[in-house]
Amino acid sequence: MAQVTVVTGGSRGIGAATARRLARVGHHVAIGYRRDRAAAESVLAELRTTGVRAVAVATDTRDPEQVVRLFDAAAALGQITGLVNNAGVTSPIGAFVDLDPADLRHVVDVNLVGYVLCAQQAARRMTTGAAIVNVSSAAATLGSPGEYIHYAAVKAATDTLTTGLAKELAPRGIRVNAVAPGVIRTDIHALSGQPDRPDRSAGRIPLGRAGEPDEVAGAIAWLLGPDASYTTGAVLRIAGGL
Ligand code: NAP
Description:
Helix content: 40-55%
Bound molecules: NADP nicotinamide-adenine-dinucleotide phosphate
CATH topology: Rossmann fold
Low-confidence stretches: none
Strand order of the largest sheet: 3-2-1-4-5-6-7
Distance between the termini: 38 Å
CATH architecture: 3-Layer(aba) Sandwich
Number of helices: 9
Order of helices and strands: EHEHEHEHEHHEHHHE
Radius of gyration: 17 Å
CATH superfamily: NAD(P)-binding Rossmann-like Domain
Largest sheet: 7 strands, parallel
């Protein structure tokens, strides 16, 4: 059966790398993005060169109606077999005492409410053999002191979402796993005010460097694929030893 996978936040970073990798192994792909249509179109053009069917849908994952539209567009490509719950945000890096409530709510809305809404659509539409991968973070266990503790706490919730959903969907033959990246070289660091964070972090990472988006994408593709047929409820750390 053809694989049809939804990748939220597929216009850049880990999501774009994942969409490219999945297309290379034959998945038809529906990518969501929030506002950068040009970036999404560029990823889409690359996906189509592999011969797969692909669509890009402007989808703010905080909005249940927009999430339904993304999944409807994916379903038009064929039976949905995969979801990569990836669209995520951090906040300006800083001390916990300075956290702005608006930033707190934004992180909870995108990284938790958005993931739940997308997983719900997936769970309603998927059948045996399908799989979900939630993109969590090594922050979930590190706590991110002095940076963004609220983000780390929400990523811990992602791990719990993964555990519960894996158990609830297992009787239907649907697997649910997570990846927990460490410091990965994407635009997310510039958006949190520290574009050089990947290089500055290298010294505290046992492997001595930040990771690349494709190094996370490879793990996501494995978790979605047949070699992970007995893997569910796992949180796979991809953090260079952090
Ligand atoms: P990124 O480069 O900043 O890309 C984020 C993606 O999410 C973009 O496509 C963005 O779309 C989309 N997005 C943001 N808000 C959205 C919303 N409300 N609705 C729908 N889409 C939205 O980030 P990344 O580093 O690849 O991160 C991807 C995931 O990995 C996130 O869940 C992040 O928490 C996690 N992660 C990243 C790292 C890291 O070091 N990079 C480490 C651990 C975990 P627009 O461009 O249109 O806004």
